[in-house]
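It would be a great kindness if you could assist me with a short task in structural biology. I am sending you one protein, given as its amino acid sequence and as whole-number tokens for its backbone shapes. I would ask you to consider whether the tokens describe a fold that such a sequence might reasonably adopt. The full record is reproduced below for your convenience.
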Amino acid sequence: MEKCIAIVGASFRFPGSPNNSIWNNLVENKDLVTHVEEGRWSFDAYQHPDKKHPGTSYTFAAGSIGDVSGFDASFFGISPREASLIDPQQRILLELACVAASPAERAL
């Protein structure tokens, strides 16, 4: 007899929501989209009112999740050199997958 199991978990990060406090932001109807941080790139060099103009932007609105440099490479068995080459989105995916799976691990 085969048994089917489901490992269910959830994990997320939202802009402007430290400690993933998204519920309070939703209840308060907060707009979590902000502007790109000063110094990230030159607004004067890239701003153009025509959104079809190549190589430019007509807006600098962003849904930033903040500092993503806190990745613990050793936890995942990744060398610091290799971690520096991994796309930040992939590092976040690893972290969120681990958080999502951890309740299932405790249930076993």
The first strand starts at residue 34 and ends at 35.
